[in-house]
Amino acid sequence: MKVRKFLIYILICVIFSIFDYYMCDLVAYQLKLPLFCDMIFCMAMSLFAGPVWGIVVVCFNHIYDLIISKSFVIFHIYMITAFAGCFVVWFYRNRFIKADLSLIKKLGHLLLLSLIMCLVMSITGGLVSRFIDLVKGEVNNYTYQTDFLQKIFSVQIKSPLLNSIFVRIPVNLVDRIITVFAAWGVFNLMKFIEKQITARNQKEI
């Protein structure tokens, strides 16, 4: 990769990390909706340039949070779930969503990818949550989006780990449909811009 392209990608990652940060802040903390909406742009970057660049966006996101909050808290371990998500969307897109697919088939694949992401995020999020519980010796309160379901599910599911996973599924079901389709839209916008820039450069040669 050329130095110029590398630096452009780094700049995009920085911008996207801030977009993800404030999108989550708006939806989850300002509007108080039981959603995460924290992975639109890291997934878009993964779709566009590969999972490593998506992970870079995630890392910059958490670095930005550290700068803003001026303190490290254990919830930053949740970035592991975003790492997994970056790999999943990249793999699925390269394996199943081909350029020549019809619009209907692409929409079907995006819906299926949303369901897969729901499961991946719920399982990894539940595992991380239980790890934090064990480290802190108490139930963590870093994912308030699922708090309203904790008591409901705890009546039927006695295992703390399974409870932590299952309470995330209803939230992630809605959240991942929104974020996967939004990420796909951003990804296609990036491809369009890249195509326009390439065409302009070829005319100048």
Structure description:
- This protein has 205 residues and is mainly α.
- The protein is 80% helix and 0% strand.
- It contains eight helices and no strands.
- Helix 5 crosses helix 8.
- It is globular and about 65 Å long.
- 32% of the residues are buried.
- The mean pLDDT is 90.
Give a quick rundown of the structure:
This protein has eight helices and no strands.
What global shape is seen? globular
**In sequence order, what are the helices and strands, one letter per element?**
HHHHHHHH
Q: Averaged pLDDT, please?
A: 90
Q: What is the helix tally?
A: 8
- Quote the distance from N terminus to C terminus: 21 Å
Gyration radius, to the nearest Å? Answer: 18 Å
Please state the structural category.
Answer: mainly alpha
The multimeric state of the shown protein is single chain
Approximately how much helix is present in the residues? over 70%
Largest sheet: none
Low-confidence segments, given as residue ranges, are none
* Total number of strands: 0
Strand proportion, as a percent range, falls in: under 5%
